[in-house]
Automatic annotation (TrEMBL):
InterPro entries: MPN, RadC_JAB, UPF0758, UPF0758_CS, UPF0758_N
GO MF terms, alphabetically ordered: metal ion binding; metallopeptidase activity
PROSITE patterns assigned: MPN, UPF0758
Domain MPN: residue ranges: 122-244
BP-aspect Gene Ontology terms: proteolysis
Alphabetical keyword list: Hydrolase, Metal-binding, Metalloprotease, Protease, Zinc
Protein name: DNA repair protein RadC
Stretches the record annotates as Disordered: 1-23
Amino acid sequence: MRHGSENKKAEQEAHKAKTTIKDWAEDDRPREKLLAKGAKALSTAELLAILIGSGTADKSAVELMRDIMHSCNDSLKTLGQYSLEQLCAFKGIGPAKAVTIMAAVELGLRRLEEFDTEDITRICSSNDIYRLMRHEMLDLQHEEFWCIMLNNAGKVIGKELISRGGITQTTVDVRLILRAAIMSRASAIILCHNHPSGNKKPSNDDIRLTSDIKSASKLMNIKTLDHLVITPSGYYSFADEGLL
């Protein structure tokens, strides 16, 4: 009897793998599980399975997403760094499903950004800057340079991407920074760029560029308050380190 029961279970598992979520046993349906127990009761793989909708002939959507999450050590942070090509390398994931996964991760980041920045009415410290900008940069595999514009009260009135570069550097035109500041009628600016390598220490080029921007903005009566180097593990503040 036991042998027969095991065979039946194996047949059920094989059948389940070939079906979509709608055809699974009720206990195995992520949608129904979410409705019955709430979103927090679902694993990350189950939540993502709801979004992609179906798996392959060999694997259910949940099993497929478990494989993907396993490949990134169950880290949504790492998943967010996957490119379209990397996601499409998994059997059963085409461009449409890959885009859906990327959109889901981005929505999660934007929700977290709202929580992180909702109490920042004005910039008072380097940590305020980091909280404001880290979501723009944490998953990037290339360097980006941003300028934050502030009014007299220290309130952020705008932020602008100045340049986008390669893995190790990006070229920054000081005139573009001044233009962004003047167009927004800023009284002060804060500079930010990321180091995908994870090295928080600014390079000699970073230090020289910061000095050039500070001198140029001073001629326009615009203060340069700080320059943050942002990495996945934290940040380096020029102001905190006495370099401004």
